[in-house]
């Protein structure tokens, strides 16, 4: 069993499609072992996305991620990291496969409805950024 970290981003929460994204998560066989709704500060978004701090989109991305609440999740199943990336689809919704979250719900490369860890080392940073051990069940 493997765990990955996921965010349902502000664009999806604002449009009230949190439940549709959660349905896709459960249909794909994930167990939700942690889940909460939070409103990130800009500084918290910057800390989370620090690996992108030199990218031209960093400031806009952190402003977007802190403009309204998100749902943060820890998902568990076999091969969770790769599987969640498959279920989300490509970063740019325009390039995502039909049926994926980003294809169905994403608005743009920035407002792409969902985030997922890209590697075990990333998940090992991202999960404890938001969750304590006691919150994972
Ligand atoms: P995410 O999986 O959350 O990881 C980093 C985010 O940066 C990514 O999803 C996109 O929302 C955003 N991103 C990546 N590339 C670009 C880009 N070229 N322009 C704007 N935002 C981007």
UniProtKB/TrEMBL annotation:
Residues 1-137 form the Nucleoside diphosphate kinase-like domain. PROSITE patterns: NDPK, NDPK_LIKE. InterPro entries: NDK-like_dom (IPR034907), NDK-like_dom_sf (IPR036850), Nucleoside_diP_kinase (IPR001564), Nucleoside_diP_kinase_AS (IPR023005). Its EC number is 2.7.4.6. ATP binds at residues 9, 57, 85, 91, 102, 112. Pfam families: NDK. One of its GO terms (molecular function) is nucleoside diphosphate kinase activity. The active site is at residue 115. It is found in: Cytoplasm. It catalyses: a 2'-deoxyribonucleoside 5'-diphosphate + ATP = a 2'-deoxyribonucleoside 5'-triphosphate + ADP; a ribonucleoside 5'-diphosphate + ATP = a ribonucleoside 5'-triphosphate + ADP. Keywords: ATP-binding, Cytoplasm, Kinase, Magnesium, Metal-binding, Nucleotide metabolism, Nucleotide-binding, Phosphoprotein, Transferase. Major role in the synthesis of nucleoside triphosphates other than ATP. The ATP gamma phosphate is transferred to the NDP beta phosphate via a ping-pong mechanism, using a phosphorylated active-site intermediate. NCBIfam families: PRK00668.1. Homotetramer. Belongs to the NDK family. This is Nucleoside diphosphate kinase. It comes from Geomobilimonas luticola. The lineage of its organism: Bacteria, Pseudomonadati, Thermodesulfobacteriota, Desulfuromonadia, Geobacterales.
């Amino acid at each position: 069993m493997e765990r990955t970290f996921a965010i349902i981003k502000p664009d999806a929460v604002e449009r009230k499609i949190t439940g549709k994204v959660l349905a896709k998560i459960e249909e794909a066989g994930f167990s939700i072992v942690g889940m909460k709704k939070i409103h990130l500060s800009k500084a918290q978004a910057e800390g989370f996305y620090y690996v992108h701090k030199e990218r031209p989109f960093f400031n806009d991305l952190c402003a977007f991620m802190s403009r309204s609440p998100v749902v943060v999740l820890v998902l568990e199943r076999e091969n969770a990291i790769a599987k969640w990336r498959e279920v989300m689809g490509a970063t740019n919704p325009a390039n995502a496969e039909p049926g994926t979250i980003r294809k169905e719900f994403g608005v743009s490369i920035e407002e792409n409805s969902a985030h997922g860890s890209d590697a075990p080392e990333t998940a090992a940073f991202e999960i404890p950024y938001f969750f304590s051990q006691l919150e994972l069940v």
